[in-house]
Amino acid sequence: MTEQTVMTRLKGETWDLHSRAENREFQKRMVRGLVDREEYAAWLGQMYLIHSMLDGFVRARLGVDPAFGAVDADQLQSARLRRDLEAVGVDPEAVEALPATGALRDRIVRAAVEDPLRLLGHHYVLEGSTNGNGFIARKLREVFSFEGERGFEYLDPYGDAQKERWAGFKAAMSARDWSDDQIDRLVVGAREMFEAIGALSLELEGPSTNVMT
C-alpha cells in the first residue's frame, strides 16, 4: 500500500455519488444561499439525527479501535448541531426523522453491529463535507441573522483552521497500513453515506420540508 491509497480510493470510488449528491437541487440552493429559514432548520434537524446516532457509535471506538485513530472527539458534530437548532428556535428533541434519515440511522446501527469499519466510512464523508460547508456558512450569514451570530457552528466548525484540520485527518488516515479488504469496507460505508445524503436532499426538495414530520 502506498500512503495515499486509502484516501485516493475513498475519493475515487465515491466520486459518482459525491457529484450526484452535490448536484441535487436542495444542495445547490444551499450553496447559493437560497434556502429559507424553515428549510435550513429542517436540514439542521435531519443532520442532527444523523450525527447523534453516528457520533455515539464512533465515540465508543475512540482510543479503543486503532482504525479510528484519525478521529478525535472534536470531529463529532452533534453538540454543535444541538446549539444550532436551539439558535434557530427548534427543540432538538422534537425533530423527527424523514424517511431517508430513518433509513440511514438503521444502516448506522447495522454497521455498528456487523462491521464498525463502515462507520469510519460514514464519518469520512461527513468530515469531508466541512471543506465546502464553510462557504455555505458565509453565504447563509448574508441571508440569516440569529442572536449572537449563532446558528452556523455545524457548517463552520473549525473556522480558519479548516484546511489544517482536513490535512491532519487525511495524513492520519494515510499513515495507517490498510488492507485492500479494509479499504473496500470503508468505501462501502462512504457510499452508503453519500447515497443517504442524496436521498435526503431529494426529500428536502419536496413539499414536506417541515422540521417535524
Order of helices and strands: HHHHHHHHHH
Q: What CATH architecture would you give? A: Up-down Bundle
CATH class: Mainly Alpha
What is the C-alpha radius of gyration, as a whole number of Å?
Answer: 17 Å
Mean pLDDT: 92
* Tally of helical segments: 10
Which structural class do the helices and strands define?
Answer: mainly alpha
Helix proportion range: 55-70%
Indicate the overall shape.
globular
Largest sheet: none
> DSSP strand (E) fraction?
under 5%
Query: What is the number of beta strands?
Result: 0
* Number of domains as seen in the coordinates: 1
Q: What oligomeric state is this?
A: single chain
The name of the CATH topology is Heme Oxygenase, Chain A
- The low-pLDDT segments are 208-213
The CATH fourth-level homologous superfamily: Heme oxygenase-like
Distance between the termini: 47 Å
Summarize the structure.
With 213 residues, this protein is an all-alpha fold. The protein has helices spanning 5-12, 15-22, 25-32, 37-59, 78-87, 99-114, 117-128, 130-141, 162-175, 180-205. It has a single domain, classed as Heme Oxygenase, Chain A, CATH 1.20.910.
Describe this structure in words.
The protein has 213 residues and is mostly helical. It is built from 10 helices and no strands. The chain has one domain (5-205): Heme oxygenase-like (Heme Oxygenase, Chain A), CATH 1.20.910.10. Residues 208-213 have low confidence and may be disordered.
Features:
Heme Oxygenase, Chain A; 213 residues
